[in-house]
Write a sequence for this structure.
């Protein structure tokens, strides 16, 4: 006999290649427990949550669930909208009306801010709802947790992409190729592109993270040096890279909308034009774009398993009476990669961005360190190098 | 005891994800035959061929060969350079000096033109060298052969990419997304993106091929209609798409270099700006770029096997005394997919572009037909759809 307590699960922000694995973890754990009666899924983020646009996930077939678990994107849908404070009252009324005691909120630090606000509002009304966060972001910029579900697969995609682009470049040499990598203000995924290296002269030859803004002069000098040495240069840059004054590179060349908008669309292209103008070398840019967060072919097994785990652990935490917390991961061993989950107060993660630490960026600001590589390797999984002649 | 006849293999044009499989086929078949003593590989295309920058491929280890066979790019290197006629004499002298009787030339219709010219020049000097072409191009625009090695993997990559981008778009709806697909003047790879469809409302919702140039008005009207019906539109366009007057879309918005150069870099972006300006819908563009021809994760097994086969068959043809021909493929059955190879005169393929036939383009000019799908499906392999809720 199931209890009379219901739950709702919701996604916020951009989807990932493994977000649906967290959803599957929530669904399966809710089903297996007598402590939760019905599990609903809010369609398309907070808007669907507030509007009561929910689907009943209790009766989904096991076959369908197994399929959804492996699909990229978000089976529930997501959104980037925020809830305004006036919505909290009606939302809590709706949750109460539908017998919802548990709210599982998958997202990044922005979503955790919303989750925290709902939790606090609920407490002010006598704690009708327990809110549990489930970490999710390809950007890996959530605090407290060792890493976030979604990151390992994005890292794996870019390691493969830069390796294959590097091989193409080795086959048909083109002086300079700039690869724009996702990550907003955090260089985690960009740094992970270093996993592409198998041979000493392999791409990426230079890596720039927004945590250590380079000048255009520095970038051009670095590229020139690499080009003189090996006749080509493949450069990984984070989409959020700016110069030390905070200005986007070459943005004035092609400014249409707001700076942010233009930057998000065109950093690689604008930087390529600026570098070409200054060095005289031919520079092309590559932007794998949305594939970086959605490529089903590059899913990391570890990432998919951990995404599922975080969904399961969120439900368990709720049943243990926890509230206002997010599931987080930490490594339990030095050498062999193992993680365990724990719970972090939402206040420690909500709205706070975790950047790549300075000591994991190379001294010249154009590469990452071996500590960064050791950190990311087990998350992305093995990226075997390809053989070469001789 | 090996004969005193040597061979050289050379690649021309852009690499593919399976080009090295053809190389492996050539190497293994040369090794297995007593009719060929040494096999050389010319580094970086015709320039390396003419300069005598060759590597001896006879002694490469089996392990290394097995690894190279699976690597994207080109282990030998390639180039887009052409040989001028004055180079033919010295080249033939060099081939004679090094005892080369067989020249295996992997490439597209441009490379076959060079291969034919070398063959004819050689005949004018008493036929010192037999030239055998091995088909290779992601664009699939070679005549006579049913399809070309490299195409199936590019088709598979874009089917996966458009499917995953479509799922991302379904999860976090964005009004219009234009995906730019490789293919120069031929819409083969762009049309293959239709393999991404699993459900009736799946991406790509519209497909435009250069063989049937649309007006901007038509594209905007089509997008508007799709958007009104399902609230979003994912559009696949070939990088070589132009309007009926032959002008690139929106090129005047962002013209820097030559038209061709700018077009090759920015069609998706320029078209997105033009459509956004005309429809008022928010339009983003995606350009997977070089990954389309180099992604090792999306290699089609059939494509890799056929690429290898074409390399083997080229050597066999040479040993049978054939010259001035290219290995081609044809289907041997109506229902079950099987191919056999045959030899086509270089004159039938050299410099000639094969476009998508008019009857394989939908009546409205914004999609492909089921015959096109039946043609491409076995080449790209199965693209399983992902499950959805409900």
């Amino acid at each position: 006999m199931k209890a009379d307590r219901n739950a709702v699960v919701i996604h916020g922000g951009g989807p990932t290649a493994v977000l649906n694995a967290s959803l599957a973890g929530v669904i399966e754990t809710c089903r297996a427990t007598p402590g939760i009666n019905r599990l609903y899924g809010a369609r398309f983020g907070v808007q669907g949550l507030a509007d009561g646009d929910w689907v009943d996930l209790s009766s989904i077939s096991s076959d369908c669930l197994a399929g959804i678990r492996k699909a990229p994107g978000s089976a529930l849908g997501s959104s980037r909208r925020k809830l305004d404070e006036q919505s909290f009252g009606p939302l809590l009324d709706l949750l109460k009306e539908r017998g919802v005691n548990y709210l599982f909120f998958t997202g990044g630090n922005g979503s955790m801010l919303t989750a925290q606000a709902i939790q606090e509002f609920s407490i002010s009304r006598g704690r009708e709802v327990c809110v549990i966060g489930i970490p999710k972001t390809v950007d890996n910029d959530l605090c407290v947790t060792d890493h976030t579900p979604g990151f390992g697969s994005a890292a794996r995609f870019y390691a493969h992409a830069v390796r294959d682009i590097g091989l193409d470049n080795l086959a048909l040499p083109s002086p300079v190729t700039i690869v724009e990598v996702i990550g907003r203000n955090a260089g985690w995924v960009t740094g992970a592109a270093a996993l592409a290296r198998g041979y000493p002269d392999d791409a990426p030859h230079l890596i720039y993270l927004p945590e250590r803004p380079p000048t255009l002069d520095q970038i051009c000098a670095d590229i020139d040096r690499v080009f003189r040495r090996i006749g080509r240069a493949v450069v990984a840059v984070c989409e959020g890279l700016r110069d030390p004054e905070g200005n986007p590179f070459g943005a004035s060349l092609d400014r249409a909308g707001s700076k942010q908008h233009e930057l998000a669309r065109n950093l690689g292209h604008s930087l390529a034009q600026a570098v070409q103008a200054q060095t005289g070398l031919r520079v092309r840019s590559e932007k794998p774009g949305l594939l970086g967060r959605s490529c089903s072919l590059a899913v990391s097994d570890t990432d998919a398993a951990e995404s599922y785990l975080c969904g399961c652990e969120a439900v368990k935490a709720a049943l243990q009476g926890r509230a206002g917390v997010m599931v987080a991961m930490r490594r339990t061993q030095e050498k062999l990669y193992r993680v365990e989950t724990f719970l972090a107060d939402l206040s420690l993660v909500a709205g706070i961005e975790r950047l790549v630490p300075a000591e994991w960026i190379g001294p010249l600001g154009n590469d990452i360190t071996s500590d960064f590589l050791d950190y990311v390797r087990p998350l992305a999984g093995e990226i075997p190098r390809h053989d070469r002649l001789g």
Observations:
- DSSP finds twelve helices and eleven strands in chain A.
- Chain A touches chain B through 63 residues (CB under 8 Å).
- Chain A has a mean pLDDT of 93.
